[in-house]
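3.2 Worked example (two chains)
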Amino acid sequence: MMNRFAEKLAAHSLSLRRARPEILQVNVGKLCNLTCMHCHVNAGPKRKEFMTRKTVDRIINWLARTQIPTLDLTGGAPEMIPDFRYFIERVKVLAPSRHMIDRCNLTILLQHGYGDLPEFLAMNKVEIIASMPCYSAKNVDAQRGEGVFDDSIAALQLLNSLGYGSDPELPLHLVYNPVGTFLPPLQDELEVDFKRELKEHFGIVFNELYALANLPIGRFASYLRHNGKLEEYMQLLIHAFNPATISGLMCCNTISVGWRGEVYDCDFNQQLGMQWSDNGTRERLFLWDIDPDKIENREISTGNHCFGCTAGAGSSCGGAIV
C-alpha cells in the first residue's frame, strides 16, 4: 500500500526522527474486561496475550540503566495481568522518583478481585489516565458497552474520595475519543464542558481532558470497512493534515514496548506489527537489544494511519498537540 503519509511529509519538506526518549510506554497485553468499538488493540476478555514476569523483569532491568523519567503502562486493561502490582512495586524500589502512569478503563476498578487497586495506585502515587469518551451515558455505552457509563462514574467518584483529581501527587486525567467518523472538537473547550457536567451532575473533579482521534486500525478500522467508510475517513484525516503537529508527535519521545518485549515507535505501529529492526541485519529488535544512548535521531516508521495523529490539532497520548 502506498505510504501517503511519507509523501505528505516530503511535500512539506518534513522528516520524522526520534528525540531523546522521555517515556517508556509498555503495552502489557490485550486482555481486557471490555470490548470497545474504537479499540485499536482489539482487546477483550478472551484475549490470551499478556506479559510474563520474565519479560517484566527484563524491561525493569533495562529501564533501570536509563534516565527515562516516565513509565506508562497500557493494554488492554493493564491491571489484569498477574504481575501488574509487582511491576509497579519493583520500579518504585529501583527508582522511587520515576513517574508512573496507569491507562485505566475505570470499570476494572469495580471488578471482583480488583477492589484494592484504587488504594494501591494512590499509595504508589501512580498517575491515572482514564478513558471517558463522553459525559453522556448514551454515547459512552454505545461505544464501550451497556452499563459502562454508570460504572465509570462510580469508579471516578471512588478515585476522587482517595484524592485523585485534587491532590497534586494524584493526577487524574480523562481521555475523550469521538464516537463516530469525525475529529475531536477543540480540546480546551471540550474540557470545560466535561468539568462542568461531571461536577454538576456527579460531583466529580479531574485535572485535564485529553482529546484523541480514532485511528483507522484494529476494531475501528473493521467498523469503517464494514460500513463502507474507511476511505471517507482517511480522506478526512488527510485533508486535515497539520504540519505544525509533527514536532509534538508522541513517536518522537516515546518508546513503545509490546507484551513480548518488542520495540516500536508507537502503540499504533505496535498493533500493525511495525517492529524495530537492526539496520544492518534486519533482525527484529527487543527492548533489551537496544542501547538507550543510541536511540536519538533514529528514523521513525510511518504509514497512512499516521494521518490520525496529525489531523487538526493533532493527537498524542497526551491529547492535542497544537
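3.2.1 Second chain
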Amino acid sequence: MKKRNLFHFITAGSLFALFIFYTILLQSVDVKPIGPNGSLVGFAAVNERLHSLFGVHMRLYLITDWLGLVAILVALGFAVLGLVQLITRKSFLRVDSSILVLGGFYLLVIASYLFFELYVVNYRPILIENVLEASYPSSTTMLVMCIIPTAMMQLHQRIKSKNRRVVTNSLFGLFTIGMVVGRMASGVHWFTDILGGALLSVSLIMLYYSINRWLVSRGEDHLGEV
C-alpha cells in the first residue's frame, strides 16, 4: 500500500478514535441531570448554557426533519444508479467500484444509527410527543454530513463540466451547512450531540475516501459520466 493511502487510513482511524474518546468523556465529565425527567447529560454546563441561548424552535425542527428527506433521496438516487448498472452490465463485479463502496458506506451509517438507538448516551433536551428520545449523536446531522459530502465526491468525478460541478457541489455544501446549523438552532439536540454527529460523520467519510483512493491507486475504479 502506498504511503499516501496508508496515511488516509490512519487519518480515518484516528478520527474514529477521537470520536470514541469524545463519547467516553461525554459520559464522565460534568454529568448532571439537566435533561427532561432528570435525564443525565455530560458537559452539562456548556450544554445547558447553549441550549438556553438558542432556545427551542419546533418549526425549524420540522423543517430540518423534512429536509432530511433530500439526503435520503440522494442516497436512493445512487442506489438506483447501482441497480441500473447491475442490470445493464449483467454482473455485480462490473458495477462501478465506487458505487459498491458507497453502498457499504450507507450500510455502515445505518449500523451506526441503530447502535446508538440501542446504546443511549443521552436523551434530547425536550420531549418529542411526550417521549424521551435518544439524542446522541444527532442522527439528522449524521445523515446529511455522511450522504451529501460523499455525493459531492461522486459527482465531482462523474460530472465532466466544471461549471456544473461547481454549481452542484456549492449547492450541496450550502445545504449541508444550513442543515447542521438549523438543527443546532432548533434546540432539539444538545450541542454535544451535534458535535458527536459531526465527528462520527467525518471519520466515516474519511474511511470512504480512503477506500476509494486505494481502489484508484490499484486502477480498479471505472466511472460513468452523469
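3.3 Remarks
The chain has a mean pLDDT of 91.
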